[in-house]
Every structure is written in C-alpha cells, then in structure tokens.
Amino acid sequence: MVDVDEQDAAGRRRTAVPPRRRRVQRVPAALLLPAALGLGFLVLPLAGLVIRAPWATLPQRLTEPGVFTALRLSLQTATFATVACVVVGVPLAWLLARVEFPGRRLVRALVTVPLVLPPVVGGVALLLVFGRRGIVGGWLYATFGVSLPFTTVGVVVAEAFVAMPFLVIAVEGALRGADTRYEEAAATLGAGRWTTFTHVTVPLVAPGIAAGAVLCWARALGEFGATITFAGNYPGITQTMPLAVYQTIEGGDLPGAVVLSLILLVVSVTILAALRDKWISSA
Amino acid sequence: MTAVHPVPAAGSALDAHVVVDRGGFRLDLRLRIDAGEVVGLLGPNGAGKTTALRALAGLQPLTGGHITLDGRDLDRPDRRLWTPAEHRPIGVVFQEYLLFPHLTALDNVAFGPRRHGVDRRTARSQAVEWLARVGLADHARAKPRHLSGGQAQRVALARALAVDPRLLLLDEPLAALDARTRLDTRAELHRHLTDHPGATLLVTHDPLDALVLADRLVIIEDGEVVQEGDAATITAQPRTDYVARLVGLNLYRGTADGHTVQVGGRTGDPFAFAVADPLHGDAFVAFPPSAVALHPQQPLGSPRNTWPATITGLQRHGDNLRVQLDGPIGVAADITPAAAVHLHLAPGQPVWVAVKAAETRAYPADARPATRTAPET
Q1: Number of domains in chain A
Q2: Is residue A35, in this structure, part of any structural domain at all?
Q3: Which of A193, A251, B23, B292 has the greatest CB tally within 10 Å of its CB?
C-alpha cells in the first residue's frame, strides 16, 4: 500500500504534470512521519550546538591562542590534502574511466576501501607503512631522514588517505558521463592524448572535479580517527579542530568544546556555501 | 559501373581500401579522391558510412586494406603501419559539430593551429581570418551554446579547415539543421568545398546534399559499393532499389531481348516490358513515376505497357499525388490532383497502369552480384 503510494508520487513528479495536480498530491502519513523524524534527527544536534553555546564568554574564548592555531592548521592541512588528492586522484579517475586494463574492477574496489574502512584502522595501516619502521617509512627515514608520523605532513597524509576516494569517485563519474567524442574531435585537430586531457577533458569535467574536491576537502577537514592514530595530537603541529574538540571535552570543558565545534561548523558551512554559489553562478 | 577504379592511383590524393570487420558487419570500400575533388559517400543507415569516415580519420583501425594519402601510408595493417588521428593531415566536420563547449568560437578554430605548433598570436589571427571567411567575424567571442545551428556548422567547418587538411571529411554536415538554414548553409558549404584545395569526402544519406555538393558519388549498402559515378549517370541509371528510391525512379531488373525486357513479376510469372532502347542480356528498366498513367479501364490502341493493378497507398508529393500500386509488378505513379479526383482514387481500388515505351530507359546490368532488385527471371 505504502509502496504503491510512493511510486505514484514519484511517477507524477517525473512526468511533470501541471502544478494544479501536484498541489493536491497527498503525502502519506507513513512517509511523512519518518521523514520528519529523520530531518529532526539531523538538524536538532546542530541546533543544540547553537542553543547551548556559551554566548556570554564567547568573545574571550574565541581569542584564546589555541583556537586560532587549531583552526589554521585544520584549514591548511585540509587544503593541502585536497590539492594532493586532485593531483593524483584525477589521473587515477581518468585511468579507471578511460583505460581498459586487466584488474580494473579490482582497482576500483581498492580505491573505495578507505571509504568503508574505519578511519582508526586507516591510521594504524598508515603507521605500518609510513611509520619509521614501516615499509616505505623506513626507507624514507634511512634515505632522507624524513619521518611522517606525528608531523603536520603526517596530518595531510592521513587526511588525504581518508578523503581521496570521494574525489576519485566523483571525478570518475564525471568522466564516464562526459562525451568522449569531444576527445576524438581534439585528436582530429592534432591534439595528442596529454594535450587532449589538459585542454579538453579536464575543462569538460571541471564541475565534477570541483564537486569532488569540495567533498574531499570537507571530509579532510572533519578527519579525526586516522589523524590521531597516525599523527598524534600535538597542539600547533598535528592538533586539528576535531582533535582540539575531542581534547577539550576530555578535559571536562564542555562549553569550550561547544565553541570549537561551532567555529568548525560555521567555517566549513560558510566556505562550502561560498564555493557552491561561485560554481552555480559560473556554470 | 563497370570500372571500379575510374581514376589512376598516381593522380589521387586519397587512395584507400577501407576494410573494417566488426562483429558480423564488414565494410569493404575502395575509395580514390583527387585533390580538389568532392566525393559524396551515400548510403542508407547502417551501410557503414560513419565507420568509413572514422577509419579514414584514424578513430577506428582498419582490419585490412590500406589508407594512403599523398603517397603516404596512414593505416596499413599488413605492414603494421598506423598513424594516430592527431598525426594525420585530415580535418573532420562531425555530424553534431562537437565544438568544445568551454572555448569561444575563436578558440575553437584556433585549437587546431595551436596543436600544430603555431604560436598563440598567429593561431588566433588565423582563426579570425577563418571566421571572417565563413561570415562569423562578429561571433568570435561567442561560446558554442550561443551559436545557432547554422553558425555552429560554419565554425565547425572553419575549425576543420584551419589546419589546412589534405583530406576533409564531412559527416552529415547539414543533417542537424532545419530546412531553411539547410538551404543557405548548403549553398555556402558548396562555395567553401569548391575553394578547398585538398580532397573532400562528404558522408550523407541525403541525396540532395550529395548531388549539390559532390563531384562524384559512391553509394554503399551493407558495407559494399553498389554504384559509383557522376550525378547524371546515377540519377539516370540506378542499379539498386535504394538508389532508385533516392533518385525517385521505378526500377526493375530482367533479361532483355531486343525491345523487350522480361522482368520477374510479383507472382513469379515473367512480365514483358516493351522498351525504346534495344538491348540483350541482363538489363535494368527504369522510368520516373511521372511517366506512369492510370486509367479506369484497359486503354486500347496504343503501343504501351499496360497492366491491371490495385492502389495500395496515396500520398502528397510536391504538387502531385504519389500513388503506390500493386500488381504483376509494383510501381509508383505521380498524377495530378485533378486526375486523382477524376479517377476517384482510393486504396484498394483496381485501375489500369500504362507506361509508354519511349519513357522507359533500359540499360545493361553488369554481372556484379550486389544488386537488390526485383527477382530475376
């Protein structure tokens, strides 16, 4: 009964009937109720942050030196991680979308593993590989004297590891949806594969790359588990905002945690909204 | 066509034997085009026209044969020679133009010269020149989505010509345009193709485009050439039902003996056609629908081909009515609306069909097997 109603409603929306009929469309209570519950569940915690924020002491809390440091570190590492993801993720997405090679399905599955992997497990895995005694990390340390764990670069590595699948999946989808005949047209005009990629393919899928980068950035900004496992929690070096929130709440300072959370919320929503407006107006 | 290779290889810019095998479909097409010549490749949907174009452009490898342009082998599977599309001196105007949506008209045209090593400033000034030549100088800064269909077609042509190709390929260049724009664009395209010093292959399924734009026609069906020659020959002497329909003629195949051609009737009985041109052996008989007269009773006393038939369909055709008739042989007739009213024509109605021998053309059919005409006697 409920299923039939839903199909009906969806069908009507798709076939774009005159607005007169859409207005009288009845939303079944069996759907409306859980929908409202779901919405409340998503919105209420955010409202709680705003309601319970210590507005009186907010100005002085905002100016505490640790807050700005953590925020700056968060924005920097998330941005660097996103740049790194774009640099290697877009070619990877292109490979997955455009080149037939044996084991492509396996590679695609591997790319999405960090999506479903608990971030803490990702952090442990990163330690095993990039740690001072890890497979790659040992070599890095022996050859260049470079050690990634518990450094700011380590934060970027952890965030990139967790966030890159978002970018690859978004860009691969865009590439699959893009019309390859434009690339053929470029070839007939004398463009090699690399030039075609940079001059035709990338501009064509730019909206997809942008959407992927936003997702990637947002995921990196909120990264916690892999970061704290792989890079630790050192203020000024590896303590990003989520880590600062965690430490503050562990220290029993709930109002402090609320302030930090609020800042993170406002900053990320503002930046995402600004980017979104820019793309929508330019598209 | 008795001669499959009408032009000696030495004089041709393009000398190609395009063989592409693709899951049950085989394209086998020999093509020679001189510099400055426009060849129209005509055929029904699925005949292999686009496959041929893609193979020539380097977007689809040959499985056999060869593509030689100005004496240089571009694709020759037996010698493992293959030149990728970007290194072939070939320009393509795609059916849907495929102008890069993120570039202006100017940058679309400048794209080719830039890829050929021309510096940005020179490439842009060349592009301005080309846009001026196709009459779009004031649309240089427009993005493709702001161009009309006819304008986009001209930008696509300018873009393909800007790399100075030795072979220009046009894939249904006018198919995406409305009737009015098509007329103007066809005339303009004709002018540019005449100016183009290289060889041109025009792929189309529109006989009018082919007749107006091409110097010579090659007609393919099911991946094989069924007829080639100049427009006059093909319109006068079609060799398959498809070509006959294209040029609007009734066509029958049979065996000639002097002034009579026995063609296979629908019922299996031979049907004797009286023709004006004396002939012997395997032959075609063709006549235009306008040469067919319809009568309510059997016409008497004139040396005509007459037979009883039944009307199966009626449709407008220009100022006239085209009547489809079934009988010992199927035939199409064009009659005036006045005559139609006089005869009370309606589907299912029996009439008598008459065709004057003087209005039929009979010509020898060669022994080539690739003919899909009326069954032989």
Answers
A1: 1
A2: no
A3: B292
Fold of B9-236: Rossmann fold (3.40.50)
Question: In chain B, where are the structural domains located?
Answer: 9-236, 241-364
CB A191 within 8 A of CB A137: no
**Measured between beta carbons, which residues in chain B are less than 8 angstroms from residue A189?**
86, 91, 111-112, 115, 159-160, 163
For testing contact with chain A, the best of B54, B98, B118 (most A CBs within 10 A): B98
d(CA B300, CA B325): 21
CB-based contact, A174 to chain B, within 8 Å: no
Reported as a single tens digit per residue, the pLDDT across A90-124 is 999 999 999 999 999 999 999 989 988 999 999 99
Domain extent, residue A99, equals 64-239
Minimal-distance CA residue of chain B relative to A201? B100
Q: What is the pTM (predicted TM-score) of this model?
A: 0.78
pLDDT score of B228 more than 60: yes
User: Please, which residues 146-205 of chain B have a Cβ atom closer than 8 Å to chain A?
Assistant: 159-160, 163
Instruction: Decide if the complex's ipTM is over 0.85.
Output: no
- Does any CB of chain A come closer than 8 Å to the CB of residue B91? yes
CATH number at residue A78: 1.10.3720.10
Residue A97 belongs to some domain of the structure: yes
Gap from A101 CA to chain B (nearest CA, Å):
19
State whether A200 and B100 contact (CB < 8 Å). yes
The full 3-state SS of chain A, as one line of letters, equals CHHHHHHHHHHHHHCCCCHHHHHCCCCCHHHHHHHHHHHHHHHHHHHHHHHHCCHHHHHHHHCCHHHHHHHHHHHHHHHHHHHHHHHHHHHHHHHHHHCCCCCHHHHHHHHHHHHHCCHHHHHHHHHHHHCCCCHHHHHHHHHHCCCCCCCHHHHHHHHHHHHHHHHHHHHHHHHHHCCCHHHHHHHHCCCCHHHHHHHHHHHHCHHHHHHHHHHHHHHHHCCCHHHHHHCCCCCCCCCCHHHHHHHHHHCCCHHHHHHHHHHHHHHHHHHHHHHHHHHHHHC
Chain B residues close to A279, C-beta within 8 Å: none
Q: What is the pLDDT of residues B291-316, one digit of tens each?
A: 888 888 888 766 578 888 999 888 88
Residues of B with Cβ-Cβ distance to A204 under 8 angstroms = 100-102
The CATH fold assigned to B241-364 is: OB fold (Dihydrolipoamide Acetyltransferase, E2P) (2.40.50)
User: With an 8 Å Cβ cutoff, are A191 and B87 in contact?
Assistant: no
Share of chain A above pLDDT 70, in %: 89
* Interface probe, candidates A182, A183, A188, chain B, greatest B C-beta count within 10 A: A188
The stretch B338-343 carries a mean pLDDT of 83
Residue B246 contacts A where some CB pair is shorter than 8 Å: no
Q: Tell me, yes or no, if A83 comes closer than 8 A to chain B by beta carbon.
A: no
- SS3 at position B96: coil
pLDDT value at A76 more than 50: yes
Q: Is residue A262 part of a domain?
A: no
